[in-house]
């Protein structure tokens, strides 16, 4: 049986615009992602379900591509019997675990200090708190990982595709080449690799390196159509990935040239790269900067050194 994929377009209060949730009708009625927790989103969600002769009561399970608020907030609307399925790293975010929130702050304060960002403790706390504004309080009932199959839709193969989020999963229907990609690859914007607090005692993940590996993996898969989290459906993902790689290379080269002129902190670089955006979108732009620095370090093109607890980078 060919799997029906129903696309629901849900408004978000974010610059990215609408987010898509998908309904899969197979042996189970499955919702993939569900939009932010706002009244507008709730209204759009319920109305569009109705247009497809469905209601919230028909949903058996929700599968998450990742933990960001615009993908999980409406979990709050789900009935208690609805199973939430996803990567285990969704759990502390979607449950809003207070211990984890504190860990995020405890990670961010010294890390940003090292990067030369003049942020006070209360500003870090505010930034962490803000990321939960449109999120939910829920739990992961069923943990899935690389190589698993979606229950109720056994031809969907589960892939771990980290980078944009550590919890990021994608789902490939091997029979049709349909690929539910979350925020892995979008037509409208290049999706950002984001910094995340590591597990206790672990090193920070290098999210841009992970992200590039995830995109490279897509090039080797028999994908026909990508059903993304935002923007248009993607039918020529090779071209789009090439474009993304080129843009990243250009940015890495710009940074390298800047570091050839003089050594700088990550924050200094961030202001040079994103002079207009950095204040408004500090976490996003710093994530991008740190990601590119990781790439340049890995390639041996730059080196880092510490002075008085602050890290400086220079070109080799
Ligand atoms: Zn996202």
UniProtKB/TrEMBL annotation:
<protein>
    <submittedName>
        <fullName>Hydroxyacylglutathione hydrolase GloC</fullName>
        <ecNumber>3.1.2.6</ecNumber>
    </submittedName>
</protein>
<dbReference type="Pfam" id="PF00753">
    <property type="entry name" value="Lactamase_B"/>
</dbReference>
<keyword id="KW-0378">Hydrolase</keyword>
<dbReference type="InterPro" id="IPR001279">
    <property type="entry name" value="Metallo-B-lactamas"/>
</dbReference>
<feature type="domain" description="Metallo-beta-lactamase">
    <location>
        <begin position="18"/>
        <end position="230"/>
    </location>
</feature>
<dbReference type="InterPro" id="IPR050662">
    <property type="entry name" value="Sec-metab_biosynth-thioest"/>
</dbReference>
<dbReference type="InterPro" id="IPR036866">
    <property type="entry name" value="RibonucZ/Hydroxyglut_hydro"/>
</dbReference>
<dbReference type="GO" id="GO:0004416">
    <property type="term" value="F:hydroxyacylglutathione hydrolase activity"/>
</dbReference>
């Amino acid at each position: 049986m060919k799997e029906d994929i129903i696309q629901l377009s849900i408004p978000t209060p974010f610059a990215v615009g609408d987010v898509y949730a998908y309904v899969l009708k197979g042996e189970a009625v499955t919702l993939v992602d569900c939009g932010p927790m706002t009244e507008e989103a709730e209204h759009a969600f319920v109305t569009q379900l109705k247009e497809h002769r469905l209601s919230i009561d028909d949903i058996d399970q929700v599968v998450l591509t990742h933990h960001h608020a615009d993908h999980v907030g409406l979990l709050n609307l789900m009935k208690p019997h609805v199973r939430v399925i996803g990567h285990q790293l969704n759990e502390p975010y979607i449950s809003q675990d207070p211990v984890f929130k504190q860990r995020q702050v405890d990670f961010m304060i010294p890390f940003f200090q090292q990067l030369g960002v003049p942020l006070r403790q209360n500003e870090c706390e505010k930034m962490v708190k803000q990321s939960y504004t449109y999120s939910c309080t829920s739990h992961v009932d069923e943990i899935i990982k690389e190589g698993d199959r979606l229950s109720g839709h056994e031809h969907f193969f589960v892939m771990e595709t980290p980078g944009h989020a550590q919890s990021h999963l994608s789902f490939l229907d091997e029979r049709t080449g349909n690929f539910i990609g979350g925020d892995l690859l979008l037509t409208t914007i290049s999706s950002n690799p984001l910094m995340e607090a590591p597990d206790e005692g672990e090193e920070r993940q290098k999210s841009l390196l992970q992200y590039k590996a995830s995109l490279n993996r897509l090039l080797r898969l028999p994908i026909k159509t990508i059903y993304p989290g935002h923007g248009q459906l993607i039918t020529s993902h090779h071209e789009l990935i090439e474009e993304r790689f080129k843009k990243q290379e250009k940015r890495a080269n710009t940074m390298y040239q800047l570091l050839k002129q003089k050594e700088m902190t990550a924050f200094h670089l961030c202001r040079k790269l994103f002079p207009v955006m950095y204040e408004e979108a500090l976490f996003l732009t710093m994530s991008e900067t740190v990601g590119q620095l990781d790439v340049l370090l890995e390639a041996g093109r730059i080196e880092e050194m510490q002075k008085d607890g602050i890290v400086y980078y220079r070109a080799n």
